[in-house]
């Protein structure tokens, strides 16, 4: 009698079990090389199933040494393409071919393999896969009533996060360091419990990472090389709440039940966002809405009437396509993080599905700003009309999000009306923020300070930097902007720059005024009352020094004094012109103090990218009218 075991039978230890029970007395066991290859691949990926299978092969070798078994390795190793397509049945097909070729009985714990083999006329010995009704995991001994998560890692002491929501402490929970063997036992217990019990399942099984859901535990098992050591992180919810437990519960119930909405639940990690999302899901279900969830992994603790979906084929886009066929009234989208997540959330909401998304954010407004650039600005209130911010397990802030065509706060010209997203406090109805486009940029403008008082206008916060940016794009020297009320500003520039800034017939400054919606008066620095009597001498010194340096064509007799220069500020760079010193290495100083060293480029200039630390220092020195010099390095 010949017996060919497949991979499932070897992993479950069924071959040695059959030999030792006497069922295969006198049989020759033919192990396909395809089985060895698959076990080797799984072991290399750090999966326990591979190691268990290899342990069974070693057990068979010992039986051969004891004269209890005849064992042969037969067939060929599968190609890389066959190995990668193992989930499609390529390896199983190779094993069936070997059983047929040797007129052997196929031993398997895989019901699909057994049925296919019978259909092909093979003799099949099918044994139920090993499983177990596990009530408890070994690592549950570390959990107390106030433990949210347990963290185990080879070579370290076990730790846990314990406490109440918002007041968690990360503390050691055992004096003994976890060894490699102990960690492997815990990991094996977790994975086998999930495989063998109806209370658990494998959510993700990739080389280096396995994520298990067992009862209300979500457990991540990380292995090298993905992690630097074997690590197990087990998390569970420590509270289950209803919507009545939160502030504004009555108003929020009415808002959510009134019609399908777009809601973002935001907060810091561990603040209680998912707990609140579970409460919302249960409430909506009780209100006779058809509620589904989208989670990866699935760990929301909701009732059986709420179906929990994960990423279909690893992609939430496919899950969304399937859900649109199911047509839920509301979908709870746990962990909206990446651009694709926001795109899926928006698509489903615009398709008419009520959406509740869970988002990491440190402020309520930050959750909404994460949509900017990912969703067309004017569509944001159609995608999200409610933002709930959770802090320490409590509802801290609720925002109502709408849109209006209006003149933004602080602007006065009627022709500046535009779509404005209004964010109001849900409880008081007071406007808190406005989001709109200003000079081709999306800006978020707070309307009140922390004490509830009115801050300076939106223009007062953003107009100055916009004016400076516009003027510096055409002026060569220093620019100073002073606001004169909400719709007027005075710009002080170098005398030589007046004509550049105003433009022919005033055309350039008129264009800037129309773009910004602000009247701009252009004057010289000498007219700036802030400059004082010392301004003229400082400016004059800088001007004459710059001219003198340029005329000499060198650093002069005393090179340590250097050449005075007037840097130019463009939209992207701070530029120092050094036409006569191409290829030379020089030091740039401000007020005699060293700033940086650079080499003059082939174009005869030094360019420093704006926004860099060096450029910031240089611009600050220019703003303070310091003397900028260049000396040989």
Describe it.
This protein has 633 residues and is α/β, with parallel strands linked by helices. The chain has 5 domains: 2-126, Rossmann fold, CATH 3.40.50.1010; 138-235, Beta-Lactamase; 243-446, P-loop containing nucleotide triphosphate hydrolases (Rossmann fold), CATH 3.40.50.300; 459-527, GMP Synthetase, Chain A, domain 3 (2-Layer Sandwich); 535-632, no CATH class. It contains 19 helices and 32 strands. The strands form 6 sheets. Strands 15-14-16-17-13-18-19-20-21-22 form a 10-stranded mixed sheet, sandwiched between helices. Strands 8-7-6-12-11-10-9 form a 7-stranded antiparallel sheet, covered by helices on one side. A 5-stranded parallel sheet has the order 3-2-1-4-5, sandwiched between helices. The model is unreliable at 450-459 and 533-553 (pLDDT under 50). It comes from Halobium salinum. Residues 259-394 form the AAA+ ATPase domain. Residues 526-554 are annotated as: Disordered. Residues 537-554 have a biased composition (Gly residues). One of its GO terms (molecular function) is RNA binding.
């Amino acid at each position: 009698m010949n017996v060919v075991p497949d991979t499932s039978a070897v992993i479950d230890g069924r071959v040695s079990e059959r030999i030792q029970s006497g069922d295969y007395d006198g049989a020759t066991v033919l192990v396909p090389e395809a089985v060895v290859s698959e076990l080797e691949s799984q072991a290399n990926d750090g999966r326990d199933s591979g190691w268990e299978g290899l342990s069974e092969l070693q057990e068979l070798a010992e039986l051969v040494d004891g004269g209890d078994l005849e064992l042969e390795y037969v067939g060929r190793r599968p190609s890389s393409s066959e190995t990668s397509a193992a989930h499609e049945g390529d390896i199983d097909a190779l094993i069936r071919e070997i059983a047929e070729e040797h007129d052997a009985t196929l031993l398997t714990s895989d019901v699909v393999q057994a049925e296919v083999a019978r259909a092909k006329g093979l003799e099949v010995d099918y044994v139920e896969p090993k499983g177990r009704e596990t009530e408890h995991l070994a690592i549950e001994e570390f959990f107390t009533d106030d433990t949210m998560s347990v963290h185990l890692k080879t070579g370290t002491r076990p730790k846990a996060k314990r406490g109440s929501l918002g007041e968690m402490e990360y503390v050691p929970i055992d004096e003994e360091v976890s060894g490699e063997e102990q960690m492997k036992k815990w990991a094996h217990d977790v994975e086998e419990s999930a495989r063998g019990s109806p209370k658990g399942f494998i959510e993700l099984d990739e080389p280096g990472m396995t994520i298990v859901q067992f009862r209300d535990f979500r457990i991540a098992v990380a292995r090298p090389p993905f992690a630097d050591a074997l690590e197990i992180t087990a998390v569970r919810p420590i509270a289950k709440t209803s919507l009545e437990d939160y502030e504004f519960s009555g108003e929020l119930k009415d808002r959510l039940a009134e019609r399908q909405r777009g809601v973002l639940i935001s907060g810091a990690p561990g603040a209680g966002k998912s707990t609140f999302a579970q409460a919302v899901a249960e409430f909506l279900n009780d209100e006779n809405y058809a509620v589904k969830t989208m989670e990866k992994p699935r760990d929301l603790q909701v009732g059986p009437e709420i179906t929990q979906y994960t990423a279909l084929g690893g992609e939430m886009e496919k899950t969304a396509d399937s859900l649109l066929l199911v047509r839920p009234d509301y979908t709870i989208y746990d962990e909206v993080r990446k651009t694709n997540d926001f795109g899926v959330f928006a698509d489903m909401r615009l398709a008419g599905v009520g959406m509740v998304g869970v988002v990491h954010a440190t402020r309520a407004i930050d959750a909404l700003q994460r949509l900017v650039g990912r969703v067309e600005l004017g569509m944001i209130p159609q995608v999200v009309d409610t933002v709930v911010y959770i802090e320490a397990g409590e509802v801290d802030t609720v925002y109502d999000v709408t849109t209006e065509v209006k003149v933004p706060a602080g602007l006065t010209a009627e022709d500046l009306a535009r779509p404005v997203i209004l964010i109001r406090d849900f409880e008081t109805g007071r406007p808190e923020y406005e989001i709109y486009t200003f000079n081709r940029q999306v800006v978020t403008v707070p309307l009140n300070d922390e004490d509830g008082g009115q801050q300076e206008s939106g223009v007062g916060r953003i107009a100055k930097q916009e004016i400076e940016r516009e003027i510096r794009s055409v002026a060569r020297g220093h620019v100073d902007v002073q606001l004169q009320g909400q719709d007027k500003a005075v710009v002080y520039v170098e005398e030589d720059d007046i004509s550049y800034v105003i433009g022919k017939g005033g055309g350039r400054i008129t264009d800037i005024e129309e773009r910004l919606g602000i009247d701009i008066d252009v004057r010289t620095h000498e007219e700036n009352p802030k400059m004082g009597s010392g301004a003229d001498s400082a400016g004059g010194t800088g001007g004459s020094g710059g001219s003198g340096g340029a005329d000499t064509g060198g650093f002069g007799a005393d090179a340590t004094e250097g050449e005075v220069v007037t840097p130019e500020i463009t939209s992207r760079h701070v530029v120092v012109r050094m036409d006569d010193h191409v290829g030379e290495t020089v030091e740039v100083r401000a007020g005699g103090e060293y700033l940086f060293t650079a080499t003059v480029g082939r174009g005869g200039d030094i360019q420093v990218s704006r926004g860099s630390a060096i450029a910031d220092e240089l611009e600050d020195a220019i703003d303070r009218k310091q003397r900028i010099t260049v000396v040989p390095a």
